[in-house]
């Protein structure tokens, strides 16, 4: 099955490739384009009406702009149910109600006797223990009413759920039913009876059971209409108690309603009532059935007072849904959202005249600032004296929000962690809402936040059965009884608090997935707890501390030692530190940065093993599955490069005897900002592998041997002091620079014995096994290149390509490097994300479309403007968000602003946006604005083209989907490299290369088994001096350059620069058009003469032959897929 | 070989409308495919360049990237002695007068398909080339004179890229001497001109503002622009804002119009987003 899955995804990609090709060949695309508005003078200046004036003023004062207001209105229109849909629902409800009311009576039997049910319907209840007392019969319900969001008018798309309450008739019930699951079982039996009755009718096609918010004590019956609107809505039938049937005080959280004796089946020695443990969760679940109608009345009374109530609830629900907080066990559902709004209205925190926008804002503000885990709130105005106090509730439940009756805690199942997550989300939202640089609407309500993309690390508990033994180990029998045997939710709070204690300051937030309510067909038994999907936990790391290998405990003589030892078990040991202190401490393994990032994993597996009896094999840690696609020691290697560079730069500064002094030494290479995918490693060379160039004492590759190891030159820009001695002429400046290179080389050789090679454009320095390429720069040179004297002697300044390229190399690149280097210091995983992102781009053959610098900037934007997330704390999550950014950003209508060093103000943002809108068509398709480059998007000016960007977006979306599925589902085939293997079917020609001439072969996504000797001595100590090695010699790049220069007009060439052994060629569509003979467009074409007319067609045979000729020695074979060529 | 080419002249030369003769060219004797090279005599009305004499120059289109000047010279010497070969990216007149650069400082050449201007010693050679039959291809690389491509060529390129520092220094020095000399000459010329202005034959002195030799007004585009801006600013400073009632009313009107315009813009943006289904939250 798994292979089938992957092949499907590949197929999909392939299809998409085809589609992109099709789009490209059609050249015409359906794009809705934004044009600047043109209003006539009359329209603009006509006198305003009072109403219009009000509207305009409101928009100006209440919102950032009227845009946000209109966006919210549009969103509401999208989610609100249409009239047509409502009619459908109403008519369906009517028929269902009629059917339910005609349910036939059956004779009274024991509850345990289920023989009256035909075999086709099973009871939706896990019968644990097997039997209980009581009598049961079927009878028509006392009443059938609508309850919940549909009745209130706050129901929104999608997943429309209409809730109906069916009140059990009095004859079914007995006064003692609250004890020992008697009522819950009757409720389940009654639903089964209803299901059996409905099954015989033709109106309802699908009947399924589910349970309310994952609580197995409260099953519900789901009805789905037949025919075409089968998936449009579901009706949930709840069985309820008649109002006031039981006294609510019976369900005080301190009282016991499940007897230990009955539950365990063992006779206890002292049957005294006082020793029985309280069962708050059980009590709460029965109490919940007493009150739905009064809740509805309460909410409709509140909503009638506030006109925007329904809209406010709808917005809040969308907000919750995007954060995956509104479904599953222990969720903060729409009902709670409406109750919260009602609370705010009643307590006058919001006024009834506010708009939906303000309601949302105020409720988020309230959530962010109120901690319901310590100070619960209550809706009860004057609670009756029997009602429990807030303190009672706090003792029994983690989160407290009491309903209007004063007896029910509506947040009983919500864990403290979920509430903390809610609070965190609310405060993050409030934070970016006010930021004018963020598209508030989009981040707030439109961006989904799945756990895998939100949390830095995610781990899953796979074998849920193991939790049973955790319950046993922690002695949680009473709690288990209270949860009626649901060991998952019994153990969950305990595990959460354990992890919270163990991880402590390392994490900002511990979130967990909410187990979705199981849905099963009426014919099958209720599913067991262990069949539920794995529990996922998400960690939001504190980057400064999370990777620390040492956990320092209390001093040896402190009273806290036992506690510390109890938590960490045998891992805790006494240690003496440099400051003289002797403390308890735990030391985790971690040599490289990559391993240190996994310290939380070590902690989690250790604690779970120690305290919860969960073996390491049932914990699936997905925090770093993607990371090993790039070398894991990259950070350390980059550090070596940076240190070597620092040393060189110091030595350059100290050089004496230069005619002008050095004003700045700047690095301009990705390795110097920790973002090089494969950072250069110091090498020791085997000289016998090479030829020698006698005059220059340099090594030269031999053509009979495999291509030597590629040595990356690390670019360093060396700015020279400005002086009147510099000539004012472009050629002369170039010669002076060459002279500087020569004298720098002489000095470096003399003072430090570095091997140097001066060239007119640069100076190569061989230092400790690394190659640096120093370029001398003169800050006025771009200006000189731009100046020109016209015939009249007027000095004019005109921009040109040469000047731009020079500015890019000597000004912008060093600046970017230093800024991103700074970013790496703030966010330790920035470099790792960049490396993953660039590896992916290269593997998918996009590295020529999105350059290294542009990719680094894209990643930087994820860190600088993470809304609605927080800055990525692990490489994997950063990479997932990079893919999401690529695939979902609206490049056509928005500039991506990368606010490096926080230099841009709100006014700058507006300016950038306006300039962008005004001249959209002439700007690059992918527009990146930085503080130093607000108008031009320097880094994406050349590429990508619109077609390639589309392809990038599509492939990114597909990769993201495949990757997220794989990461979240342990049962799928686990091979993250699937997203790094591009489909090659879409290309016209494949040029296969000789692996021995591909110097970076070892860096391939799937490195081949064979390796070649490339003239490197393994494990040698790098030295300076000696002959100059072969620097920057890569046959693949040279070949690609020749191909592009010769055939760039006819075809596109793609290759993975990191060890790709295939060059893929795609003909441009216009290649196939036969054109009339023109001297300027005859490249690689031949002619066909038809009478007087001459047509030129591309000479494919000769071109393919040229591919072989130009790459002689490198090309293994040329595979032409002629069947794809569209003549 | 030239003789054998001439034998087939009349019946097999392939001339296409437009006056070009199609020649075939293949890389090695056993290459399976051939390029088409188009040749014609060089005929341009306004060319005065001495480098391309009209009667002896052959204009060649579609010269493949592996044909360097030496290779082209060899290839076309079968039609007669070649005196010079010029290869360019695009057809056009020959280069302007840049100062002569040493080979280290010349920009790297593009390795694409080229157009060539081949000057023969005799004009008969042009005709010979034009009447060469299509089915007898020119062969670039033979056993006698192999042409390096691929890995061999790149290694050769790499080893040729070494420049001995002393030679580089020499060429820099030579250029800078030349540059200094040119500069001095230029200054000399300017000084002479200034001298000329100073007093003419009859002893009259021409009076100008400022120092001798310099112009009173900065003579650059940027300076012109700055001066213009300054004038504008001065003008604006003198204006009175919101002084009269009508001015005040106008400002208010402008404000409302501004709001309205923004409103309309937002509305359009929304319409656009709606069209793109941007409001579906999930």
How is this structure best described in words?
The complex is a heterodimer of chains A (1127) and B (282). With 1127 residues, chain A is an alpha+beta fold. In chain A, helix 11 (309-322) crosses helix 12. The radius of gyration of chain A is 36 Å and the shape is elongated. Chain B has two domains: 2-160, Alpha-Beta Plaits (2-Layer Sandwich), CATH 3.30.70; 237-275. Helices cover 42% and strands 13% of the residues of chain B. In chain B, strands 1, 2, 3, 4, 5, 6 and 7 form a seven-stranded mixed beta sheet that branches. In chain B, a hairpin with an 8-residue loop joins strand 2 (21-26) and strand 3. Chain B is extended, with a radius of gyration of 34 Å.
What does the average pLDDT of chain A come to?
85
Strand arrangement across the biggest beta sheet of chain A: 3-4-7-6-5-12
As a whole number of angstroms, the C-alpha radius of gyration of chain A is 36 Å
Rg over C-alpha atoms of chain B, rounded to the nearest angstrom: 34 Å
* Total beta strand runs of chain B: 7
Give the oligomeric state of the chains in this entry, treating copies of one chain as homo and distinct chains as hetero.
heterodimer
Q: Distance between termini of chain B? A: 76 Å
SSE arrangement of chain B, N to C: HHEEEEHEEHEHHHH
Largest sheet of chain A: 6 strands, mixed
CATH topology of the largest domain in chain B: Alpha-Beta Plaits
The biggest sheet of chain B amounts to: 7 strands, mixed
CATH superfamily of the largest domain in chain B: RRM (RNA recognition motif) domain
